[in-house]
Amino acid sequence: MDLSDKELEVLDVYESEEYYRATVSPVLDDGSSLKADVYVWKDTYRQMLQLEPWSYEDWFANHHDAWVSKLTPDGAHPEGHM
Question: What is the DSSP letter of 63?
């Protein structure tokens, strides 16, 4: 999936300073590889990591509205979803 610069900017804002974006080359099941961007947790924020698995449902119920309210109108999806 190719993302526009604006879409990458929205993701960068979401991930914030705790992460950096890196380009990797994962190997697929068929042996081929491709370039992909991933967000990697910075070591300086390691103490903030939680042991519980991340849940989209929990994030949406508890954090979605606050996150969307931080975006500029042209940077957010009209429905407030990614």
Answer: T
* CA proximity to 22, closest of 41, 40, 42: 40
User: What's the pTM?
Assistant: 0.62
Q: Where are the domains of the chain?
A: 5-70
DSSP string of 6-59, one letter each residue = HHHHHHHHHHGGGEEEEEE-PBPTTS-B--EEEEEE-GGGGGG--SSPP-HHHH
**Cβ atoms of residues 8 and 69 within 8 Å:** no
**pLDDT tens-place string over residues 28-54:** 999 999 999 999 999 999 999 888 998
